[in-house]
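If I may wish for something, please sit down with the protein I am sending here and say whether tokens and residues agree:
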Amino acid sequence: MNRLSGAAVIGVPTRLLLLLVGGLLLLSGCATPPGTQRQEGAAAAPPSAPKTLRIGSQFEPVEGVAVFAGSSNKAAQLTWMFHAGLTAYDPQGNLQPRIARKVPSIADGDWKVFPDGGMELT
């Protein structure tokens, strides 16, 4: 191993090997786990159909991550599209659902407040 100013110098083949091993570790960490074995006599639940969310846009993003993009209108649209809140206030100051189906309320029974201060949303 070569020494330069007290620091070890790593050769190109060693760097490639380390990069390859690191990549393999990353890929194996992202792999799906092996299937679980079925218990005999247990009823198998029917598989649920996957839900698909389709989002349309009139342009192709070129900035990468929208949070770090410039201040253009396109960047603002992407940021709003992927980082929008569940609710928003209308011009009169009323809370309205934006992505959520409904805003929970105590009057409708969606939001329960218990005497000990605990809460439950349904």
Residues 66 and 80 are 9 Å apart (CA to CA). The chain has two helices and six strands. The chain has a mean pLDDT of 75. Residues 73-121 form one domain.
